[in-house]
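I have been asked to look over a protein record a colleague put together. Alongside the sequence sits a line of tokens, each denoting a local backbone shape. Please read both lines and tell me whether the tokens look consistent with the sequence. I do not need a full report, just your reasoning and any doubts. I have pasted the whole thing underneath without changing anything.
>
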Amino acid sequence: DYLLIAKSSGGYEFFFIELESPCGNITIQGGELGSTFRDGISQLKEWKRWLQSNYGAFTETIKKYKNPNKELPDEFYTLDMTRFHYIVIAGRRTDFNDLTINFIKIELSSGRLEYLTWDESESGIIDGIFTARYKGVYFDEDYSNGRISELNNMCVKYVEIYSESGKGNYFEIESLMFEDGLENFKIEKPCYRIEYKENLV
């Protein structure tokens, strides 16, 4: 239904957004996605397949709407599927487990405390399990690119959870995975303290 194009520190990113009914079959028992969401996901998969074989046509369409005095950057001519993101919007807030991670506080092996925040987040429920992916991570106010080695022997001290309903959802972290280019670092079942922030408005 919509294509959003946004520019970040790494260049342009493309977001295909499929809008579905707010009143359809949104979730089923166990928190898994219902048919309304699955229909939207199928449509986005079709777009993904189309892009892989028709990127030239996509570029030509974009050129029709660009500023005639400006050139398109390389991202618009060379297909890089990591720059494409697909979003289905359906249902209402009450259809989902009411849970958002605001930030994570960690202690590095040096003893220094850092707050992990991020530019972008994606979250959802897969097989009844809440999962989240965060992009553009910061250590306090500093961008974390190239600093993954500092996470060795880190300890998670505190996780702040936002709950709009204030129901105090049960929450347990199974693992944390950090990626920086070709490097990655994973922590299984970290120890931590949780605090819920309720909607007071």
